[in-house]
Amino acid sequence: MGNITKKDIEEIIKRTAGVLLEDISSKFDVFGEALDYVRQKVDKLEEKITKLEEKITKLEEKITKLEEKITNIEIDIASIKNELIEIKERLNEKVDRYEYLELKKRVDKLEYYIKRYIVRKTPVAV
């Protein structure tokens, strides 16, 4: 081993720097490929998120329509309840079937009595 000259040192530094640069360059290539893969994944996720947002918007619209329908149904039910109350009140005022039959018997008896006793006794005008 002889004397190492300045030129030898510069040559060693150049080779070492070249090796280091090649190593760094290959690592950047690998990093770039990984970054491209991550970008593709992010793009796919963004597409999925966009589709999900669209679905959510459609579902929100459907929910709004359903809420409106439910409100209308509730209003209809309240109206029907009020009508039922009125009908029940009217039915309470009416005579039931048994009472009707009893009253009919009494009226029939009165008609019979009137025809038999009152109408016969009334003199006929000539």
Terminal Cα separation, in Å?
Answer: 174 Å
> Beta-strand level of the residues, as a percent range?
under 5%
Given the C-alpha coordinates, what overall shape results?
rod-shaped
How many β strands by DSSP? Answer: 0
Return Rg in Å: 52 Å
Low-confidence blocks of residues: none
Number of domains: 2
Largest sheet: none
Q: Count of helical segments?
A: 2
- Mean pLDDT across all residues, rounded? 91
Coiled coil: 35-101
Keywords: Coiled coil
Question: What are the main properties of this structure?
Answer:
mainly alpha, 2 helices, 126 residues, 2 domains
3D architecture notes:
The chain is mainly alpha-helical. It has two helices and no strands. The chain starts with 5 loop residues before the first helix and ends in a 5-residue tail after the last helix. It has two domains: about 5-95; about 95-125. The mean pLDDT is about 90.
Q: What's this, in brief?
A:
The protein is mostly helical and about 130 residues long.
Task: Give the SSE map.
Blueprint: H1 6-93, H2 97-121
